[in-house]
Amino acid sequence: MDVENNFIKPILSFYYGKGASEIEAHKEIIKQYGQHAITYKTIKKWFIEFRKEGGVKDNKPKQKKKVSDEFIIDLVYKNPGLNLVELGKLAKVSGSVISRRLKQINDGIEIVNYKNKSGYKSEKKFTDKFLVGLVDENPGKNMKELAELAGCCESTIYKRLKQINKNRSKDRKIILQKSATNTPRKPRRLTNEFITKLVNENPGVSMKKIAELANYSISTISKRLKEINSCGEIVYYYKSGPQKINRELDDESLNNLVIANSRLGATKLANFTNISVSTTRSKLKRIKGDSEEIKYAKKKAKKISDEFLISLVNENPGLNMRELATLANTSASTICNRIKKINSSGEKLVYFKKSDKKFTDEFLINLINENPALNMKELAELVNVSEQTVSHRIKRIKIDGGRLNYIKKYQHMKL
């Protein structure tokens, strides 16, 4: 601070006394003392101090203000709804001049309460009074219709009404009534009947070809098919592609196959014909629809009761899931799901998961009884499995109560 008072202040006071501005003083000092001698901010601060003190005469001729502070204050209070640009037009100055003068006034003693308002990019095409009158004269008109009458777009009507409602009380706000008649929806060119007929007439055609025939995109056809099926009406479409299909299989061959194997379901018939299950079903439906010669009834999987399954598991504790399924004439997954369902309902069905056996318990019992001198390793070599597998199977047979007299033997050490 001593440096500023003893060195900087006298130099700046000299330039201020000569009537130089802050910018001119800054340029002169830089020329004499270097680029970093003093900042413009410091010069500005000292010049403000000099003006406040009034001790040093300011010889710089002051520009006469175009508008007085009193005029601007009065202008703002009389026009509270105008923005800076509009106030500037009334005062015949620019909006930036009004903004700067308001800041200067507020820096002093008097405060001007002015709220900044966003200026319109263009002049208003019509007054608020005109818009209010237009709404009152056309109570049944919607936003679009009012915009046509006013010769502007809907967004302009919306924004102007929003501005008007801001300055109104709740009971005086302008609320447009919704249009009584909605615009009717255009009828679909692509009807459900057309798509259904197109798919049924072209059963082997891919989605891409169907889309080309209908002159629509693939996604549109796919969505419409899903939409039709979700409504209850079923359209049988099978995805075309590189499938292993025996296309030479004619209706007569399939008819003969069904007659010769009347007990077989669609899945097993598909295995015979070397085509997919879905294709077999679609062919059967088409043949059945065209002619009454084919007599095919859909075969359902054999249902098994909970009591039957519980009895089956308890009577065969050594069987695994696949072996139980073979006895019940169903799939292993069905047996698994039914066991879970029984246990979840409260009734307990004790079943231990067993892996597929490479040999039966009877085979292992006979092998041990016929070879009592063999140890675990030698038995495993005969059965072509690991020692661990033989050991586990022996333990399981003993637990289940099987007739097995096996004494553990140690391998002879080679000397």
From TrEMBL:
Residues 6-52 form the Mos1 transposase HTH domain. InterPro entries: Mos1_HTH (IPR041426), WH-like_DNA-bd_sf (IPR036388), WH_DNA-bd_sf (IPR036390). One of its GO terms (cellular component) is cytosol. It comes from the Eukaryota. One of its GO terms (biological process) is response to amino acid. GO terms for molecular function: sequence-specific DNA binding. Pfam families: HTH_24 (PF13412), HTH_48 (PF17906). PANTHER family: LEUCINE-RESPONSIVE REGULATORY PROTEIN, TRANSCRIPTIONAL REGULATOR AZLB. This is Mos1 transposase HTH domain-containing protein. The lineage of its organism: Eukaryota, Fungi, Fungi incertae sedis, Zoopagomycota, Entomophthoromycotina.
